[in-house]
Every structure is written in structure tokens, then in C-alpha cells.
Amino acid sequence: MFNQNPQRTIRHFIRDFGRVHLSELFVQLKEGVDEQSILDQYSLTEQQLNNIKSILLQSPQKRKLG
Fold first, then answer.
1. Of all helices (H) and strands (E), which one includes residue 50?
2. 59 neighbors 24 (Cβ within 8 angstroms)
């Protein structure tokens, strides 16, 4: 889906990943969709998904997406 480079920051990742996909992913996380299917669907590594989850599941006041 996008060029995966472990050196990229989460801010770059979010920009490349796109807010539409983040919204879809957030809904899937809230609905309890199997994480492996999310990894496959978005071509993510487990670490990337964990980083996204840690940001998305924070309160909106604490979120700093860039």
C-alpha cells in the first residue's frame, strides 16, 4: 500500500497512510476486528499497528498527529 521504511516516524506513516484509512482502522479496532486481518488488509507490521493503536486509542486531547 505504501513504502514501508522502519526509519519513518509515526507522523510520516500517518500522513502516508491517510486519514480515511485511519478512520476505517479505528472503527475496526473499536468493533474488535481480528488484528491479523487488519495487518493483512493494510499491509502493516505488528509494530506499526501497535503504534497506531497507541495513538488512536488515546483521548482526543492527548492525540498529536502532527
1. helix 46-56
2. no
**Angle between helix 19-31 and 35-42 (nearest 10):** 160
Radius of gyration of the chain (CA): 11
Question: Which has more pLDDT, 63 or 36?
Answer: 36
Sorted by sequence, the CB contacts under 8 Å of residue 35 that are 6+ apart come out as 49
pLDDT at 61 exceeding the cut of 70: no
Secondary structure of residue 65 in the 3-state scheme:
coil
Give the pLDDT mean for 19-30. Answer: 84
Confidence of residue 1 (pLDDT cuts 50, 70, 90): very low
Q: Please, what is the average pLDDT of the chain? A: 76
